[in-house]
Amino acid sequence: MSRVYNYSAGPSMLPLPVLEQAAKEMTDYKGTGMSVMEMSHRSPAYDAIIKEAEATFRRVMKVPDNYKVLFLQGGASTQFAAVPLNLMKTGKADYVVSGEFSGKAFKEAKKYGDVKVIATSENTNFDRIPAFNEADVRPDADYLHVCYNNTIFGTHFNTLPDNGQVDLVCDMSSCIMSEPINVSDFAMIYAGAQKNVGPAGLTIVIIREDLLGNARPETPAMLDYKVMADAGSMYNTPPCYAIYIAGLVFKWVEDLGGVEKMHEINKKKADILYKAIEGTKLFHLHAQPDSRSLMNVTFRTDSPEMDKKFVAAAAERGMVSLAGHRKVGGMRASIYNAMPVEGVEKLAAFIKEFDEKGGEI
Ligand SMILES: *Cc1c(COP(=O)(O)O)cnc(C)c1O
Q: Which of 289, 286, 270 is nearest to 329 (CA)?
């Protein structure tokens, strides 16, 4: 077996023990004589899988009882429409645009009402979380939308958004389960699975119960949180296999010591990488120090040719998918929960070596 260190932003690495367990159970899940992929979603075996996945997630994330957890489809991008369709009661919402995905969320929401950007860091190519406070939020807005971790630019909210009395809605696609958060600080949290949780397609929604039942009449049933909540995420066939894998990942996080332990490891990993890059002559970091992400580390040299050379040389050494997003250029190392410390140490050592040799590798 030869596994690489994969720094892809998503889909991304999954914990090896999870993949191994899935492989073991692939053709015969616990004596059922079938794969989870082949199983009716209404069968007792599957019912146990989805219930356990939700229960584990609730424990690990300490989800309060007055919040629903939904397993939906369509990726985080589908939530860009579902959020305004469900939550815009009076037709007003405020958005912080701190990167690519929050920009897309804003654009989608504009189709449905009076939507305002209250802060953006676009003028510095999203190298930081823009400053704003309660006074910038319209008090009659139905919600304030933020993206907690900006996957493409490598920035993260390192303090809780100051949203005043307005409900806070948060895209946590690329940082969910990477750090402890207080769910009740948020009205709703959503996350695509393919960064920290499991296979692409599955989308997790955590929503406060009093927000259900306000969807606009034209909202497709598949996007109506109340319809999905009433049906236990099984209004239609859910992404069964993705939920099963996510359940194994939740268990893996729990067995490792939960999100607190995960956070400790993630801080250690990010620290190794940021320090290594800061110690070089060739490489520069994109994100400002107070906005740095623990999950996505963005950096570059002064030359796109040198960047390409670095990415290619790293790949030859078993460190793949390090090219940055075209909007930032340079490199991006995504070091989600499943990236082992050794993978970060190996990359840090290579960055140092590349720098010492002036790129003549
Ligand atoms: C990846 C990502 C998305 C988009 O997810 P899809 O599943 O591709 O729709 C949205 N927001 C953030 C923060 C992301 O990292």
A: 286
Copy the structure tokens of residue 15: 């914990």
- d(CA 197, CA 259) in angstroms, rounded, equals 13
Q: Rounded to 5 degrees, what are φ and ψ at 344?
A: -75, -40
Question: Which of 79, 100, 102, 151 to mutate to test ligand 1, by most ligand atoms within 8 A of the CB atom?
Answer: 151
Residues sharing a CB contact under 8 Å with residue 343, sequence separation 6 or more, in sequence order: 5, 7, 319, 335
Q: Is 171 in the pocket of ligand 1 (CB under 6 A)?
A: yes
Q: Which tokens go with 269?
A: 């990993």
Which residues, including other chains, have CB under 8 Å from residue 360's CB and lie 6 or more apart? none
198 touches ligand 1 (CB under 6 Å): no
CA of 270 to the centre of ligand 1 (A): 21
Q: Is the shortest distance between the CB of 75 and ligand 1 below 6 Å?
A: yes
Scan for tokens 């939700």, then name that residue. Answer: 54
Residue with tokens 């305002």: 116
147-194 pLDDT tens trace: 999 999 999 999 999 999 999 999 999 999 999 999 999 999 999 999
Please give the Cα distance from 35 to 225 (Å, whole number): 29
Contacts of 96 (CB under 8 A, 6+ apart): 102, 117, 118, 119, 120, 129, 130, 132, 144, 145, 146, 147, 161
Which pTM was predicted?
0.98
